[in-house]
Structures are given as C-alpha cells and as structure tokens.
UniProtKB/TrEMBL annotation:
One of its GO terms (biological process) is mitochondrial proton-transporting ATP synthase complex assembly. This is Mitochondrial inner membrane protease ATP23. Keywords: Hydrolase, Metal-binding, Metalloprotease, Protease. The keyword Lipid metabolism does not apply. Pfam families: Peptidase_M76. InterPro entries: Peptidase_M76_ATP23 (IPR019165). Its EC number is 3.4.24.-. It comes from the Eukaryota. The keyword Magnesium does not apply. One of its GO terms (molecular function) is metalloendopeptidase activity. GO terms for cellular component: mitochondrion. Belongs to the peptidase M76 family.
Length: 213
C-alpha cells in the first residue's frame, strides 16, 4: 500500500534526497509518487493507526481516479508531510493532495479526508472551477462534505451532534459554510453562497449514482 510504504520509509530513508514510492501491485493505476527530502520530515505524531490503512484505497477512491482519467486529467499526487496549520489535509490544483502527518487521527478520518479532497480534485477536472467564485467553492464544498463520509451519523455522533432528523443535510451545510469562512473572499457571504448552491450541488453525486457507503 502507498501509505504503508511511506510510513516505513519515513523511518528508514530520511537521508535520501528523493524517494519514489510505487503503488501496490494490485492497483491498476501505475502512477509513481515522488517525495522530496523535505516531504520525508519525521513527524512528532503519527497520522496512521495500524492496521487499517487499506481504507486509503477503497473502491470509491479508485473510482474517482478512474473517472478523472476518463475526463483527461491525471489523478492528483498524494503526499504526506507535516502541515503548518491544524488540518487533516488539503488539495491544491497543480500541486496535488496533501495529507498532514503531524496530526494524530483515526483511519476513518484519514479515509474521509482523502475522499473529501479527491472530490475537490474531481470537480476541478470536471468543471472550469473558479477558486475566486464563492458559489463555485460552495458547490464543491457541499459535494465534498456530502460524498466523503464527513457527515455520516457515526461521525456526527463523535462530534457530539446527537440529533437524528435531517442530520445529513444539517452537517453538510454546516461544514461547507465553515470551509468557506476560511476563504478570505468568501468569509462574509459564506452562508449565502452555500444556500445559493445547495439545491443543485447537494443532489449531485457525480461520478457516483448515490452517496458512497
């Protein structure tokens, strides 16, 4: 597995200038991931909890990658490195997907983070996504919260949100608004942007036919 190999190399090969981590032989995507010396900084805390790292290569993740290839886009390179801000991960067009390995978390959160950011990557590929357009950003944040598992009842329960009725929609709106509030240009109208994009984007499950389990 990509992440299992990375964890071992973080310990054994910090002196290397560059390291190439190959995908598992059973993975049809033969992309190689390049990690620089800076990426191999040893974290103070581990983002990985044994033995559940197979969550990272579930069918839904592979589906997103395969659909991006069909659209003519390369799936994002997935890197693990320490992050300056408290975050589980983020996606940057042109740079790829970063998983923050200095934040201790659980495998299900790692899985959800990868799917959340992969949705952003897919949306960037599928649409001419304007990162300065708050409606565009609201749409991809709605989809990412809805499709990644961020708002499953078990996740909400862990956050102390105990209500059952309409919990999925409430959670999706709340998390999308929170994400937009972190964007300087969208902070002031975060809630309004989410409401404007809600009807169309909350029922857009592409490339899936329904919300992945």
């Amino acid at each position: 597995m990509i992440f299992e190999h990375l964890k071992k190399r973080l310990i054994k090969e910090q002196s290397l200038n560059n390291t190439i981590i190959e995908n598992d032989e059973n993975n049809n995507n033969d992309k190689k991931l390049l990690f620089s010396k800076d990426d191999l900084l040893k974290p103070t805390k581990s983002a990985f909890i044994e033995p559940n790292n197979k969550e990272c290569e579930r069918v839904v993740t592979k589906t997103l990658m395969e659909e991006m290839v069909k659209l003519g886009c390369l799936p994002p390179v997935i890197k693990c490195k320490p992050c300056k801000e408290e975050s589980f991960g983020y996606f940057e067009p042109g740079s790829g997907l970063t998983i923050c390995n200095n934040i201790k978390t659980y495998s299900v959160t790692l899985r959800n983070t990868i799917l959340h950011e992969m949705i952003h990557a897919y949306d960037t590929c599928r649409y001419d996504l304007d990162t300065d357009n708050c409606i565009h950003l609201a749409c991809t944040e709605i989809r990412a919260a809805n499709l990644s598992g961020d708002c499953k009842f078990s996740q909400e329960l862990g956050r102390g949100n105990l209500h059952i009725y309409n919990h999925m929609a409430d959670c999706t709106k709340r998390r999308a608004i929170k994400s937009l509030e972190a964007h300087p240009k969208c902070k002031a109208n975060a809630e309004l942007s989410v409401l404007k994009a809600w009807e169309k984007c909350n029922t857009d499950y592409s490339p899936f036919t329904t919300i992945p389990k």
